[in-house]
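Sequence and fold:
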Amino acid sequence: MVSGSGIPQVSGIVKGLLKVDWFKILLYKFLGGVLCIGSGLSLGREGPSIQLGAAIGQGISRFLKRFRVEEKYLITCGASAGLSAAFNAPLAGVVFALEELHKNFSPLVLVSTMISSLTADFVSSSFFGLKPLFDFSYLTLIPLDKYPYLIVLGIIMGFIGFAFNTVLLKTQEIYKKTKLRTEIKLLIPFLLSIFVGLFIPDALGGGENVIRSLNNSNYEPFFILTLLVVKFFFTMISYGSGAPGGIFMPLLLIGTLVGNIYGICANKFFHLNSSFIKDFAIIAMAGNFAAIVKAPITGALLVTEMTGSFRHLLALSTVSILAYLTSEILKNKPIYEVLLERLLENGYVKVERDEENKILFEVPVGVGSAIDGKRIKDIEWPSDCLLVSIRRGSSELIPRGETKILAGDYLVVLTNENKFLDLNEELSIMAAQPTKLRDKKW
């Protein structure tokens, strides 16, 4: 449970799939992360920061003896605070919790994560003197007539994201087929880091220092290309071994390197102004994040906060959306969802759900869904569920037979914990928009 970034584990806990010992996670993840990341493995600290924050949130819930539904909100708050503190990007922390962990914009999650993210950012900056990880305030504004270059960049990042996910998952499969002990698997990237450190030390660690130096000085194109190849495969080997550490920072660096090479090529072959090379390098970070994690809003806002201005939001959104759509066309699944599925399939954790425990969860109603515009009494509801209330804007309605469900409503449902997974999936299909229903049978 302490291997990898920790984000799949947090997602599994929030969804009710996993149960963990929060104190062991807090202790072992911290020590393991410090050892592996400090030793130079190509891993980031942002994923572990999210899992550590989630563990603290769960610990507070257990200490205060809160209900399970409140515990999930506290876990989410801790996760968003961890990302906020890691990047000094509170807005990205909030949107990450909504887009990646909960998959819907619940008002309860929004308000609670906003408080935790802002508090974490305030504490880290005011008490510990931490500054934003990057400062890209020097970027020039890309004019609209240069946006065709961004369109091509977005498509390229979609392919890069597809390659990243495919190779990463394949590397895990190779490690698994070797049937080596965990200690031997971890030894492989540690030994490799010695050779990488001797020949190309910039490929060690997460890569934040390289991102800064790339955008403050000029590197030879051949060196950038070499660094890209080494960083890509060193990240695969490091993460695939199961070492505690994330892929947040490595994937951002890979995006920066690809964007830098793209800008150099555009300058050389199409005579594009060289001042845009740094812009492409930074904007490509958001595109790579969107293609790999499948969270385009988080990617765009994360880099927006790094730039210190919303002037580049249109360019960032353009590349993020195109990278996301390209990744969708290639049928590239979100990396953290696939990693969670593998975690469950491999039997590394025991899933325990108690029939006696009750759980509250929300289901958003989409436009044109099967239940949009219908009265409660006219809907064939699944068994073992109780519709507790309906959130409509700032109001909370008591459900009655004649109450009509409208698009944009949030259905608050109570069920047994052991029925949650099946019921949540069934209700989500009923409340989904027609585009989602085409791929479902119910």
Notes: Residues 435-442 have pLDDT under 50 and may be disordered.
